[in-house]
Amino acid sequence: MSATTASLSLHNQELLRPVMPELDSIRGMAILMVVLYHGLYVGLDLSRLGPVARVILGGFWLGRLGVSLFFVLSGFLITGLLIDSRAREKYYLGFYVRRALRILPAYFATILILVATAYAPWQFIALSLCYLSNLTPLFGVPIAYHVLWSLAVEEHFYLFWPLVVRKLSERALAFFCAAVVLLSPISRAISFHFSAHDGRRFVFNEYTWNSIDGLACGALLALWLRACRPERKAVSKAAFLLLVGSVALESVGLRWGIYTRQSLIGSSLQVVPWHGVFVSLLCSFLLLGTSQWRWIAQWRGLRFFGDISYGLYLLHPLAFKLIDYFWNRSILSYVGTKYIPALLVRFSLASSLAIGVAWISRKTLESYFLSMKNKLAPP
């Protein structure tokens, strides 16, 4: 096959395939964003830094949006999976068994660690076992292990979404998703209004009904690609327009405090432009992954992190706590040139530990249960 023929063959390749390695790269990007946010932004006193360091480390605030990227990707993948399988006889059984084998082993192992180390109160553990980690403030219980909130949102999505996809036509499903995208900011605005004086401004956005528009955005993309079968040029154009529109909304929102959830605009709209950016990113990676530039979207380094992303997401806060326990963090209180090196050493130690344990988990515990998928729930 000539180089020209090979290039044309790639160019005509379907965007949607049984295996899409570029999506592992996106998953890798998302987990790296989250780890950098927790390791190089959360809990730091940026006022002790010089202006350049303050800007650089302050930029890691954006890492918290890695969770939103996870939501968009999950909405895309799960909706596509359900649409492609809804004619199967064991539609529900197959989906729930395969999801349980993927999610529950590492999740329950993390819960056991939290119990063994007395990291979280029993009330939080009990609610987390019911996948209510993001709703514990409604029961008067603080979110003691914060990363579990997004897993609770995902599990609620997994619980109800198969029924919605099975019962609605693709057209009705698209309208349903569009309604979620439009109503979620309104729901967050209402929540902001009623919680303005009770100290929960940074919690209610994590309630399930306030967090599902990212999932709906991903679902809309899955529906569009399947129902309309757009040409590559149309997908490229859509990605560009989404990116431009998102940047425009973000630019306008800056004046009204879109970057802080202390304001009504920020609380309700902060993640909205980023959902557009992440859908655009998905489109771009699908295009790159089926072109002669696929090596960009399928870089092995990002795919490695994508492969261990679940365990890494669950475990990395514990790794940082463990490093802090053995190495008194008071060393980080030094100012000037000593602060940054100490911070980087701490980050390197904790992230390396988390990556190593997550890799072991992926190759042992998670792989063991994943190997049962085809036996217990044939595709």
Main sheet record: none
Give the uncertain stretches in residue-range form.
1-11
Shape: globular
Rg is: 21 Å
Distance N to C terminus = 33 Å
* Annotation, overall tally of beta strands: 0
The sequence of SSEs as H and E is HHHHHHHHHHHHHHHHH
Helical content stands at: 55-70%
Tell me the number of helical segments per DSSP (H or I, 4 or more residues long). 17
Overall pLDDT score? 90
Tell me the β content: under 5%
Structural class: mainly alpha
Overall description:
- This protein is mainly α and 379 residues long.
- The chain has a domain at 68-299 and 353-376.
- It is 69% helix and 0% strand.
- The chain contains 17 helices and no strands.
- The protein has helices spanning 3-11, 21-40, 51-58, 66-85, 91-116, 122-129, 148-167, 170-194, 213-227, 232-254, 264-269, 272-288, 294-297, 300-307, 309-326, 339-370, 373-376.
- Helix 5 (91-116) packs antiparallel against helix 6 (122-129).
- The two termini are 33 Å apart.
- Mean pLDDT is 90; it is low at 1-11.
Write the layout of secondary structure elements.
Elements: H1 3-11, H2 21-40, H3 51-58, H4 66-85, H5 91-116, H6 122-129, H7 148-167, H8 170-194, H9 213-227, H10 232-254, H11 264-269, H12 272-288, H13 294-297, H14 300-307, H15 309-326, H16 339-370, H17 373-376
